[in-house]
């Protein structure tokens, strides 16, 4: 075993332990969730109601029934008043016809039957009024859908949902407002944030966020990491426990939220932040050194990015290129479908900004937790098993063709490669390649330049893809393992459900064997294999992946310095041994313990993010 001092860079850094904070007794309440994005943030709370309407179902004590009903009537009256104001404004600025929409909302709000049924429900079932109102209006919606004239009555359903959302928000004391219009620098607290919410978020105004729902690989967490915004997710009850305007600390390392911290805790946080900055500066010192193990194995370190606005900033960082450009955020962050020209402009910008370094553009992965009304991707019972990613693209060859042409055109301006998400059969890959062939033909006909030999890779995200890895490898220029999905599909654990978050175990031997099989299949066919899932950015995960033989790791920009430090401290020979033992382990816990031991042997203090 090499000693840490043999390394040109001492891998040890001052440990940053959340345990050094003593929040208890120094704030109104400590809430515990899941660490979604590292960092610490402090600020006033903005409670975001969003379009995601939800209700809790809780009993109301008998002596609180009347006040619960009064609360409902007050909320209704307030929403009616708001709608009247909207109606006046619409009539003034747009025209009478638009004002009529709000008139129909007011009629719904004042509907005597709906009010009576809701009040009756609170009195007889002793359930909270939000729940009773939700159920009452749901019955109306179900009746409309049941008439078989849903197409014709779709607008009516939308109106009812709109009114219901407004009343439920009012009952929760939250105001509907887009996160792009935040006026004050805030900690955003929400029941859940959709990827569109997050993509539209004004990064300079949101210092941190907390959600009741979600896990570390939910797309809201992924975006938060990309944007460098500390986040705590899966923090059950946060949005009803924290009030707008209260001050909160988001500890994105430990997954804790400290509400209304006192002077002592604020001072501790300030000092802790200074230590973090010091650590970041130390990491930056090694950022220009090669990402190479001590026995000389080079591991490419690449970036995962999501937004056009990130391109310029991240191109200046020390990296080997872009391992994953998630194009779907282009589609989610705007109300209009991006045209070929618009997409081309973004992909070209990406290619040019990174010069000769490879940039890997993934075709859109809409669906799952990334819903998109434009494509009529509506909520499904099992969204991650449903109409998602390549399945949507193949079902809409016209739209897919637009994206493929835009990517191909960008390939004339840099080192562009492309990959398909969520492949689970050879037929899917063949079909996607056939549509790509047609896109090439169309460009050729017009004399539009593109790189005919642009490498096209396959994402390995389903156990099925691993099992047919040999067949896929014959048709792919590279593999990119999406561990976020591979783990959820292998372990049958929804990556977005905080109730099962503990079962989402990247060290589960089944997951490791799948990764190992994918690496073997790729290398047998002499194609490179990389990992672009979140496992790549965790210190222990990266150590293990190197041992399993992957060629490149792709991650959020903020994680690159730390993973470079890890790689420079280890030897390939030794982590290969660790990986071999991990493949024979019986539990994720055993794997984790062995990895921690190995990291300590390398002189590595594994920070707060493992
Ligand atoms: C993955 O599944 O690991 C991945 C990188 O893709 P996404 O997180 O966008 O589903
Ligand atoms: Mg995926």
How does this model look, in words?
- The structure is a single chain.
- The protein is of the alpha/beta class.
- It folds into three domains: 29-50 and 179-280, Glucose Oxidase, domain 1 (3-Layer(bba) Sandwich); 62-172, PtsI, HPr-binding domain (Enzyme I, Chain A, domain 2), CATH 1.10.274; 290-601, Phosphoenolpyruvate-binding domains (TIM Barrel), CATH 3.20.20.
- 47% of the residues lie in helices and 13% in strands.
- It is built from 23 helices and 16 strands.
- The strands form two sheets. It has an eight-stranded mixed beta sheet with strand order 1-8-7-3-4-5-6-2, with helices on one face.
- α20 crosses α21.
- Residues 421, 461, 482, 484-485 line the site of magnesium ion (MG).
Mean pLDDT over all positions: 88
Overall structural class, as computed from helix and strand content, comes to alpha/beta
Query: What is the count of distinct domains?
Result: 3
Distance between the termini: 23 Å
- DSSP, total strands: 16
General shape: globular
What's the CATH H-level homologous superfamily of the largest domain? Phosphoenolpyruvate-binding domains
CATH topology of the largest domain: TIM Barrel
CATH architecture of the largest domain: Alpha-Beta Barrel
Rg, Cα atoms, Å: 26 Å
Regions with little confidence, pLDDT below 50 for 5+ residues: 1-8
- Ligand catalogue: phosphoenolpyruvate, magnesium ion
Strand percentage lies at: 5-15%
Instruction: Tell me the number of helical segments per DSSP (H or I, 4 or more residues long).
Output: 23
